[in-house]
Amino acid sequence: MSTKRNMKAAKGGNLRQNPRKRQGTARRSVATIPHPPSIGDYAVTQSKRLRFTTNAAVAQEITFQNLLDTVLFSVTASFPYDVFQQVRIRKIRLWSLPSLGTSSTVVVIFNGTTLGTQGDRVVHTDASMGIEPAFLDVRPRQTALASMWQTSLANNAFYIEVPTGSIIDISLDFRSDTQGVATSAQNVSAGATVGALAFRGLDGLAIAGTKFTPPAGLNTI
């Protein structure tokens, strides 16, 4: 009996010592050429903060056409064109410091109306009594007209009321047209350098007549 048990144990040991060989499956390497990835947007976009200083008291509407006319390309000495064809507003910040002993009030309202789309109509206002500047840091609501892409139209983007010497920073998103559309500025220039990039006041007027002066040292028309 002991001999049979020893033989079975020996056989079992051999089985454990010699497991079955794994049968691997050879994988074939197939060379594939992926297609080029899709391009979601081909337009040229630019986010930019522009600064203006008022040289007179201001109480007026600013249109989307005015906003697009702030950055221009001089095709001729007299006829500039917009560098970008669409714009939307991200934020407006402004400061206004009155003379000592007086007060000043600043107002911004995103009040545009076009084709059933409204501005948010919120009245943003602040006042100063000469100790520190009146200050606003405002942006249109996401569903407001000014937050959406707009073309060069005479529709109101926002209303602004500030005294002389106010500093206005406006943060804009610009977008180019990819279908060959060219938009001329609403006002001509005089003696502009052909082929040069130039800046203009926030009200769309030529530099000689604007109430919103761009920073010194820029090429303005």
Can you characterise this structure?
The protein has 221 residues and is mainly β. It has one domain (45-213): Jelly Rolls. It has 2 helices and 14 strands, in the order αββαββββββββββββ. The protein has helices spanning 2-17, 64-68, and strands at 45-54, 58-63, 71-74, 80-82, 86-96, 104-109, 113-114, 117-118, 123-128, 134-138, 156-162, 167-175, 197-199, 212-213. Strands 10-5-12-1-14 form a 5-stranded antiparallel sheet. Strands 2-11-6-9 form a 4-stranded antiparallel sheet. Strands 4-3-13 form a 3-stranded antiparallel sheet, with no helix packed on it. It is globular and about 80 Å long. The termini are far apart. The model has no long low-confidence stretch (mean pLDDT 88).
- The CATH architecture assignment turns out to be Sandwich
What is the name of the CATH class?
Mainly Beta
The number of helical runs is 2
Low-confidence stretches: none
Largest sheet: 5 strands, antiparallel
* Radius of gyration using CA atoms only: 34 Å
Give the overall silhouette.
Answer: globular
Tally of individual domains: 1
> Structural class, from secondary structure content?
mainly beta
Could you estimate the helical fraction of the residues in percent?
Answer: under 10%
Strand content: 25-35%
Please, what is the average pLDDT?
A: 88
* Neighbour order of strands in the largest sheet: 10-5-12-1-14
Alpha-carbon distance between the termini? 114 Å
